[in-house]
Amino acid sequence: MDTTPNNASAPELILARLEEIFRAELDDDDLAIGMDTRQADLKAWDSLAHIRLISGIESEFDIQFSIAEIEQISSVRQFVDAIRDHLP
Amino acid sequence: MSEAAGSARRVPKLPLQALPWLPRPVRKMREHLAGLPADPLDALTAMRPLAQAGWDEGELRLLGRKVRGILKSEASSLKAEARKQGLVPLHLLLLSASTANHLGDALIGTAIRFGVLLELTIVEYEEPEPWIERHRSALKENPPDFVLLASDSRMLRLAAPLGEEEASSQAVDLALGQVMRIAEVARGATGKPVILQTLAGDVDASQINIDLGLPGSARYLTGEFNRRLAVEVRRSGHLLFDVNGLSNLVGQATWSAARYWYAAKYPFAAVMIPLYAEHVMRILAAQMGRSRRVLVLDLDNTIWGGVIGDDGIEGLALGTGSPLGETYAALQRMALSYKERGIILCVSSKNDEAIALDAFRNHPEMILKEEDIVAFRVNWDDKAANIKAIAEMIDLGLESFVFFDDNPAERKRVRDALPAVAVPELPEDPSEWISVFQAAGYFEQASFSREDQLRAGFYKANARRAAQLERIGNHDDYLRSLEMTLSIAPFDQPGRKRIAQLISKSNQFNLTTRRYSEAEVAALQTNPEAITVQARLEDMFGDNGMISAVICLQNNRQWEIDTWIMSCRVLGRRVEEAILQHLVQQARAAGALHLIGRYVPTARNALVRDHFEKLGFRRIDSQPDGETTWQLVISEYRDKNLPMTIEASGSSGSGSASAA
């Protein structure tokens, strides 16, 4: 069933790309994140880093978060879910 | 023409905020950064070619962060080393009432593209004026090279009741007064002109058609503010950053992103940051004399449609009558418009020269004429070699060159062989070339002077002088045959724009590469310690315009040459000897004992390394970084017989002295 087209939206692939963005935007090359990582778990994930993550993810996945998503997302899982919602 | 219509692969059109004139990046920035050499200087040098690609905002930030990391962990000697490699350290103070820190790393990354190691001080969410007041002494101690006042309409709170002209005018006065006051305070603290921004139109403002003429409406107020700011900036010698123009270029609705304003007080959309940063750097680069000055054009399928060798003059698509012909005519008009701004037009094309010239002479729709082109290199040689030959012929460095060619393979070849030359990528459709080329902004100007209008003529006259030299053979006889007159005067108001331009643009014949703004040049006019010299050179082939500027500072009975600049157009004409003679005469009259000269090496001024030695100075100091200090004892100097008439005016010297 899952040959190629929808592979890009598989959660684990999204997670891998997210990890790279988190490492870049939080300036930590060794950072490891998982689905259950929350904003409260990462000291560097402050409000300024949050907006950098938003813009980094928007350009990486070529999507646009809504203002409500920008406000509400506070965990990696929420990012992954929102990205999957936006991907075609 | 047959293959053009339905050819295979289509590249999606890039928006201007993606900097489409730059080559697209290959691989991720992260991978490039991981592969950089370990040595910090090597790493910085390797970043320069990397930065030439059209990176997006996130990738630029990674680059900038890496630069910051290297500079933070390394000794200050790294900066001096980097300067020798052509990476100039520059300190920018960015003042913003909204968020600005997010611009920092992208600016630093973009600066690498321009050969600049940018150090930033960012002040955000603050009223700039009180901040400057509080930090006045720190700014005096370690002044930034430039200040950017990133104001926006939210900070200026432009508002007036609808329909009230008087109140609108007062609101604009108030906002303008606030900005100009900040600019003056900043200039007072740093001694440098301040970059001031126009206000981008507000996409959230009412879009009612009458607003443009309706006092009190947002569109009316920002329009009035911007117009008056431009006038004020020109009058006061500050620098204009037309952010509104930029926002209009990409479209207001694309420029601003309400989400980012509400979420983080970003003044414009994050995807616009690379374009914004590119413009900031263009303005700074122009101040540093790093704008480009030469446009080299290909011919076939570039300035006309078709291949002249195959299609003949009659077969070319050019001019009225066909959409494609109109497109190429418009491109020629654009090139001509740059000639009028002082850009030197040249041709490099793989063609038979006689056939190509025939089109210039005999095609009725040609807008560019033979006399508009300063140098033709039409042959079957490699284009990179031809561009190099042009650079030698007109005596300008390759970093002044832009090469325009429709053929991606030629573009890549020139880019690889001559990395200093700017080679814009072009969309497939020639009707889109002009907008992309204009957006690339290669010819950013710090100011506009009469010299700019005449420049192409200077270079043409030089070609005729070369022919005369060839005919006469003996160099001194040739110089005498030119019937040169050198007019020397201290800095004055009419010459100020051109003097400032010489100081900001000259890189090769520039002993110390100290940059002074127009306002600083004006201040020198009234400084009693400063002896200033501007010189014009005329000869039988025409007026060369103002070609040299010298600033001497009196230190008791010693005169120190702070700045000595000459246009490379007049190299080999013994002008520098005449100027020295003038300086010596003045120094002698004032009772000075010595002239002290200094040579500060940069990546581009090796030409004048032996300048003082050739003029008879003795070396009295030399530093490990290559800086040398020289002394001339006034009493030992003997006047020379120079092949020109020297007319000195307005100086303490002897009035008019002829030495021919």
Describe what this molecule looks like in 3D.
The complex is a heterodimer of chains A (88) and B (660). With 88 residues, chain A is mainly α. Chain A has one domain (8-86): Orthogonal Bundle (Non-ribosomal Peptide Synthetase Peptidyl Carrier Protein, Chain A), CATH 1.10.1200.10. Chain A contains 4 helices and no strands. Chain A has helices at 11-25, 47-61, 67-72, 76-86. Helices cover 42% and strands 17% of the residues of chain B. Chain B has a 9-stranded mixed sheet with strand order 15-16-14-13-12-11-10-17-18, with helices on both faces. Chain B has a 5-stranded parallel sheet with strand order 2-1-3-4-5, sandwiched between helices. The N and C termini of chain B lie far apart (62 Å). Classes of the chains: A mainly alpha (88), B alpha/beta (660). Chain A binds chain B through residues 20-21, 24-25, 27, 47-48, 51-52, 54-56, 58-60, 64-67, 70-71, and chain B through 30, 56-58, 61-62, 65, 101-102, 258-260, 262-264, 266, 270-271.
Chain-wise SSE layout:
The complex is a heterodimer of chains A (88) and B (660).
Chain A: H1 11-25, H2 47-61, H3 67-72, H4 76-86
Helix pairs in contact in A: 1-2, 1-4
Chain B: H1 29-34, H2 40-50, H3 57-73, H4 77-84, E1 88-96, H5 104-113, E2 116-123, H6 128-134, H7 136-141, E3 146-150, H8 153-156, H9 165-190, E4 194-197, H10 218-236, E5 239-241, H11 243-250, H12 252-255, H13 258-264, H14 273-287, E6 294-297, H15 308-311, H16 323-340, E7 344-350, H17 353-362, E8 373-379, H18 383-394, E9 401-404, H19 408-417, H20 433-440, H21 450-472, H22 475-481, E10 484-489, H23 496-505, H24 518-526, E11 530-539, E12 542-555, E13 558-566, H25 575-589, E14 594-599, H26 611-614, E15 618-622, E16 628-633, E17 644-648, E18 656-658
Parallel strand pairs in B: 1-2, 1-3, 3-4, 4-5, 6-7, 6-9, 7-8, 10-17, 13-14
Antiparallel strand pairs in B: 10-11, 11-12, 12-13, 14-16, 15-16, 17-18
